[in-house]
Design a protein that fits this description.
The structure holds two protein chains of two kinds. Chain A is of the alpha+beta class. Chain A contains 17 helices and 14 strands. Chain A folds into three domains: about 170 residues, no CATH class; about 120 residues, no CATH class; about 170 residues, no CATH class. In chain A, the strands form four sheets. In chain A, strands 3-4-6-7-5 form a five-stranded antiparallel beta sheet, sandwiched between helices. A five-stranded antiparallel beta sheet of chain A has the order 8-9-11-12-10, with helices on both faces. In chain A, β11 and β12 form a beta hairpin. In chain A, α11 runs parallel beside α16. In chain B, α9 crosses α10 and α11 crosses α12. Chain B has 13 helices and 14 strands. Chain B is an alpha/beta fold. The chains are: A alpha+beta, B alpha/beta. Chains A and B meet through α12 and α16 of A and β1 and α2 of B.
Chain lengths: ~550, ~400
């Protein structure tokens, strides 16, 4: 007989054939399969429900049925291992060991499960006793759970747990045997610092939470795990310090994560886009980082981190604009240097946004703005350039973007070569050919370098895009256009919010107590309070009067 | 994606594109390479009575360093003249000759020929004040004994590629280092002086110094055209109303600056107290002044108080001021005398030209407006017989690390 249950919409393994005469076992199996299918269809049509461990679809008592169901569910995937062990006198008891190859620690399974089960000599009377014995004594793995639900069982197996099923018991044991090839903890490539921790997040959520836990060794660090993605079933963890983070914001994060209804999550960027406050803004309102120290620092300010399995990038909310121009190093370096470097960053952000447009405006509209020698210099360089300044600027900027993209995509060995060839040869050649003026090359290069000086790349990308709009504005109405553009930008930025906190805080609205960490970063002994709008639950973070002083004088002999 | 939202979005994009292209259209766009940067502008009147404008237009390709890094040997500017019945027309007529539109925002000098200045400069001032492109910070200078056109066609400096750069450099150092020309004599202050009651305008005096025409051309060292003539700064052109009436030399001009408190530095030469025929130079460090006009018994008198400090700069003979303190006081009193001489020279010259360049009348107006009201109609006469009381407080501050000047065996 042929059973056809095709429904592409639900993306459930739906087509299979059974081509033999039915016996009792088969009938049982068929019933279970139908049940399973019905449940899966239902789950797919209401995907948000599957996040809770679903009821229904209990395991069968029949080991054969269970084995077939498991194999069918995985569509006979080659990485699924189902090992049948015969134990007890005369091989009375059948134990199924189910795991996905590559997700498990094989040594652990062979030594602590298979070996111990096979060598086992106790005399069991019935399967229930065997089951209890397995659970309580034999399995030498710390985390063992029990489940009677097939779906739950499959989820555990798909995550790297090892499933054990014994015949004539409608329950299964799942032992945490997760262990897979993972990247070493390395220095984060996108956020390298000179001073500070050299460890970065990796793709494994558990490692990442452990990195966090190692920096916050207090039970108040809460890590809540959610599962997002109806098929990918990606673990997403919310981390916060209870008592510092505002419970309402935590609840809002939970709600927003709960609203996500997608089939898969590959990267935290997807979560970011699904929960952010301003989806159409060129600037991100959620900070992403791959540095545990940055996340821990944010947690201590009362912020909340969202860690996603499968990506080293964690999200931090609420995020403000100034955070994007802050590097963890600011807090580790000496205060004056940190403050000076911060000023440089603000300057370079502004430069990367406006420099080409300023050049265009000055050369096309406001030749009176520059000192005579400089304007004559620029004029001499523009001599014989066939394009208007605005076209010249756009041309070079686009070329620069192409170069940058090519440099990023190419293999690490070829990448620099492309940058050099592109930067030097094309720039120099275009200049010599008289297509662009040397000063334009200087402007584009300065802009490019300035955009690399932003610590968080995503905000630099926003400036990169807006730069082109600014050039067009400058090319059509000069400084007036630039000012109008900046005005619109300022209006937009001040209107943004990130999880209830104004994006431009502490600039607009002005939060005076937070000026200590705006342009200048005051010494640590003066950082008494947390950011007022985020850490208001427990505002004072440290004791007062901690400025180092010479030791209390013991008399005049200090001069000796 | 709801269709309503989409149609709104599309119409927004459409409207933006439409408005951006029709409303702005790159208003008053002018590419930098289409402009000719005017660096100096001269005004004369032709024999036919038309106004003649002469401009120096910088050649950017010759002035700035090229892409090769070398400096061009070409002359850095172009001198071109045109005429018209008004200054504006004459300026616009330059378009007939210049392939690049003259751009006046970088103009730093308004040069006026002597003849034109004597006839009155009122005609052209309005244009420079009203026009949006010309700057009021351009210096007003009058060419003694020549037309602006002649001056501009010949003047050149060895050290600068643009004559305006040369003029600028000299003006700045004369103002700061010699104090012998009007300070900040811009178009703006010229207009202010012109309109102030009881005050007459002055302008910088310029002269053309021709070089020897047969001077050998040193081809190896100086490839560009040989400098034919250079200019001499210092002194002032004195106006009465808008008409040029005469000149002040350098000393007299510094006398004016002493009174108005604009002396910044300079050298005062006095006799050496203990040795005949030897001189001492003093470098002026700072100076302050205050003048108070007063009307008493129908006699206008002005009390000018000058405080000056100087340092000992040079002794020709032999003198150890540490050993002879009386020599120090002697030099101080001589310094006061020297300042007085300069001031009196300026006042007598001003009286001779009958032009109140100090602004005594304006000060009286501020202090005693009622008296001024009765005096202002005959201020010309009153200024002639004005009584100037001069109080100079001169101080010699330091003598450097050398106490005694070196002595031959």
């Amino acid at each position: 007989m042929e059973l056809l249950c095709s429904s592409a919409k639900y993306r459930v393994p739906t087509q299979f054939t059974v081509n033999k005469t039915l016996d009792k076992d088969d009938l049982l199996m068929l019933r279970s399969l139908t049940r399973l299918l019905r449940k899966n269809m239902w789950a797919a049509s209401k995907p948000s429900q599957t996040k809770k461990d679903s009821t229904g679809g209990p395991l069968s008592k029949n080991v054969k049925v269970n084995e077939t169901l498991i194999k069918q569910s995985f569509g006979n995937s080659s990485d699924l291992v189902v090992r049948e062990l015969r134990v007890g006198p005369g091989g009375r008891f059948t134990v199924l060991v189910v795991y996905v190859d590559g997700l498990v620690d094989k040594t652990l399974i062979s030594e602590n499960l298979i070996e111990r089960i096979s060598d086992q000599t106790a005399k069991w009377c019935n399967p229930e006793q065997a089951y209890d014995d397995l659970k309580n004594r034999i399995i030498a793995v710390s985390d063992v759970k029990e489940t009677g639900d097939l779906d739950n069982f499959l989820n555990h197996v798909a995550r790297g747990d090892c499933g054990l099923i014994i015949n004539d018991v409608a329950k299964a044991l799942v032992a945490d045997t997760r262990g897979w090839a993972q990247r070493k903890i390395e220095e984060p490539t996108t956020e390298a610092t000179i001073r500070g921790a050299k460890e970065g997040f990796v793709e494994t959520l558990r490692t990442n939470t452990s990195l966090l836990r190692r920096r916050v060794k207090h039970p108040r660090l809460r890590i809540e795990e959610h599962e997002i993605g109806t098929i990918s079933k990606t673990s997403v963890a919310i981390a916060y310090i209870s008592g510092l983070a505002d419970e309402k914001v935590v609840q809002e994060v939970r709600n927003r994560l709960g609203r996500i209804n997608v089939d898969s999550i590959q990267e935290s960027g997807q979560i970011e886009e699904l929960i952010e406050d301003a989806p159409f803004s060129p600037f991100p309102t959620i900070l992403r980082t791959e540095r545990p120290d940055k996340v821990a620092g944010a947690l201590f300010e009362g912020r909340i981190a969202i860690l996603t399995d499968g990506t080293p990038f964690a999200l931090i909310v609420p995020a403000t604009f100034t955070m994007f121009l802050t590097s963890p190093e600011d807090y580790f370096e000496r205060t004056f240097m940190a403050s000076a470097v911060r000023a440089i960053r603000y300057l370079s952000f502004f430069t990367s946004l406006t420099l080409p447009s300023l050049y265009v405006a000055v050369t096309t509209f406001h030749q009176e703005m520059l000192p005579t020698p400089l304007i004559l210099n620029i004029a001499s360089q523009r001599e014989g350039v066939p394009f208007p300044a605005v076209v010249e600027a756009l041309l070079m900027e686009v070329l620069f973007e192409i170069l940058r993209e090519a440099g990023v995509r190419l293999p690490r060995i070829v990448g620099p070569a492309v940058s050099i060839i592109g930067g030097l040869v094309i720039g120099e050649a275009a200049m010599r050919a008289g297509l662009v003026s040397p000063i334009m090359v200087v402007v584009v290069a300065a802009t490019g370098i300035a955009s690399f000086a932003t610590p968080v790349f995503s905000v630099a990308i926003g400036a990169r895009l807006l730069r082109f709009i600014m050039v067009l504005l400058a090319g059509s109405i000069g400084f007036f256009g630039i000012v109008a553009g900046l005005f619109a930008l300022a209006t937009h930025l001040t209107s943004l919010r990130s999880f209830g906190v104004p994006f431009m805080e502490p600039i607009a609205p002005a939060v005076v107590s937070q000026f200590k960490d705006l342009l200048a970063r005051v010494p640590w002994w003066a950082m008494h309070t947390r950011p007022a709008l985020v850490g208001h639950k427990d505002l004072v973070r440290q004791g007062y009067d901690q400025k180092p002083k010479p030791p209390a004088s013991s008399g005049k002999d200090t001069h000796r | 994606m709801s269709p309503k939202w989409l149609s709104k979005f599309i119409s927004f994009i459409f409207m933006t594109a439409f408005l951006a292209s029709t409303l702005t259209g790159c208003w008053s766009r002018r590419e930098i390479e289409t402009l000719g940067f005017v660096t100096a502008l001269g005004v004369d009147r032709t024999e036919e009575g038309e106004i003649e404008i002469t401009v120096h237009i910088a050649k950017p390709f010759a002035v700035a360093r090229g892409t090769e890094g070398g400096v061009s040997t070409e002359k850095g500017f172009w001198t071109v003249s045109s005429t018209g019945s008004t200054a504006f027309e004459a300026m616009r007529n330059l378009l007939l000759q210049s392939p690049r539109r003259p751009f006046y925002a970088h103009n730093r000098f308004i040069l006026i020929g002597e003849e034109y200045a004597r006839a009155g400069v009122k005609d052209i001032l309005d244009l420079f004040a009203r026009n949006g492109e010309t700057r009021r910070l351009a210096r007003v200078e009058v060419i003694k004994g020549s037309t602006a056109k002649d001056f501009m066609q010949q003047v050149e400096f060895e050290l600068e590629r643009l004559p305006s750069e040369g003029e600028e450099g000299i003006s700045r150092s004369v103002e700061v280092g010699l104090s012998s020309q009007p300070v900040e004599c811009t178009l703006n202050s010229f207009l202010q002086w012109l309109e102030t009651e009881g005050m007459e305008p002055i302008a910088v005096r310029l002269e053309l110094i021709p070089k020897k025409p047969d001077a050998p051309i040193n081809v190896g060292e100086l490839l560009r055209e040989q400098v034919r003539a250079s200019s001499k700064h210092g002194g002032a052109a004195v106006f009465k109303g808008d008409k040029l009436v005469g000149w002040l030399d350098e000393t007299e001009m510094r006398g004016v600056n002493w009174v108005t408190g604009k002396v910044k530095s300079g050298i005062l030469v006095i006799d050496q107290p203990n040795e005949k025929g030897k001189l001492v130079s003093l470098e002026i460090l700072r100076a302050k002044s205050k003048f108070q006009p007063e009307v008493k018994n129908a006699q206008v008198s002005v009390t000018v108080k000058i405080e000056a400090e100087a340092s000992l700069g040079e002794i020709q003979g032999t003198l150890d001021p540490m050993k002879y303190p009386q020599a120090w006081t002697e030099m101080e009193s001589q310094m006061a005398e020297a300042i007085k001489r300069e001031v009196m020279a300026a006042i007598s010259k001003a009286k001779e030209l009958n032009s109140d360049i100090f602004g005594f009348g304006a000060a009286l107006n501020r202090k005693q407006p009622k008296e001024w009201a009765s005096l202002k109609d005959r201020w010309d006469l009153e200024f002639q017989r004005i009584d100037v009381k001069l109080e100079v407080e001169a101080k010699l501050r330091r003598m450097g690390l050398v106490t005694r000047s070196s002595e031959p065996k």
